[in-house]
């Protein structure tokens, strides 16, 4: 988690300072933001160009009203009226689909493949601070048995493990940020230069 801070090196201050994984993520965030800033400011020199681009505006309306129909009336949506807002929107979208997605997905199986680390279902209630007499007796006699009754069944755990394995899997035709330039970008010397 980070909050905006113009005095911080990347314009964001981490809420947990000593978190190397997040610090590395900020480097990726910064690279994405620099690329998006250079790209957007090349095509949209001022707010009028953003506001008058009907296709861009229709794209943003569709994202808010169709893609997130359940949240379409929220007041926190940015209004797409300046290059700065477009830069923020695109940076967030690219980050979520790349760095953030990789951070939350690719490591899932390593942690949650062992289901006691992150059980997906509880088949019984966990003991409370004031269990009834029979629960208390059962728990004190054999606490591991009490816990095992709560955990998912083998079938339930195996199904979730298989899903997590798929979510954590890297595709053989996976593309990485900055790996391959789009052919139409290559033709434009400025865009090719900022891509490089």
Automatic annotation (TrEMBL):
Domain Lipoxygenase: 1-196
Signal peptide interval: none
Keyword annotations of the record: Dioxygenase, Metal-binding, Oxidoreductase
Short name of one Pfam family: Lipoxygenase
Transit peptide among keywords: no
Descriptive protein name: Lipoxygenase 2
The species this protein was found in: Forsythia ovata
DNA-binding is among the record's keywords: no
Gene Ontology MF terms: dioxygenase activity; metal ion binding
PANTHER family per UniProt: LIPOXYGENASE
Cross-referenced InterPro entries: LipOase, LipOase_C, LipOase_C_sf
Superkingdom as given in the UniProt entry: Eukaryota
């Amino acid at each position: 988690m980070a909050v905006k801070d113009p005095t911080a090196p990347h314009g964001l201050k981490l809420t947990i300072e000593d978190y190397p994984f997040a610090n590395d993520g900020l480097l990726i965030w910064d690279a994405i933001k620099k690329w998006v800033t250079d790209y957007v400011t090349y095509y949209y020199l001022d707010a009028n160009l953003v506001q008058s681009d009907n296709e861009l505006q229709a794209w943003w309306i569709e994202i808010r009203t169709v893609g997130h129909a359940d949240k379409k009336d929220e007041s926190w949506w940015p209004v797409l009226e300046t290059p700065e807002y477009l830069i923020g929107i695109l940076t967030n979208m690219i980050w979520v689909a790349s760095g953030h997605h990789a951070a939350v997905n690719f490591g899932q199986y390593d942690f949650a493949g062992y289901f006691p680390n992150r059980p997906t279902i509880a088949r019984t209630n966990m003991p409370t601070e004031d269990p009834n007499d029979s629960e208390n007796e059962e728990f004190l006699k054999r606490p591991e048995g009490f816990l095992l009754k709560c955990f998912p069944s083998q079938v339930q755990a195996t199904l979730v493990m298989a899903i997590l394995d798929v979510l954590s899997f890297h595709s053989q035709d996976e593309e990485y940020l900055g790996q391959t330039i789009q052919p139409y970008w290559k033709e434009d010397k400025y865009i090719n230069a900022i891509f490089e």
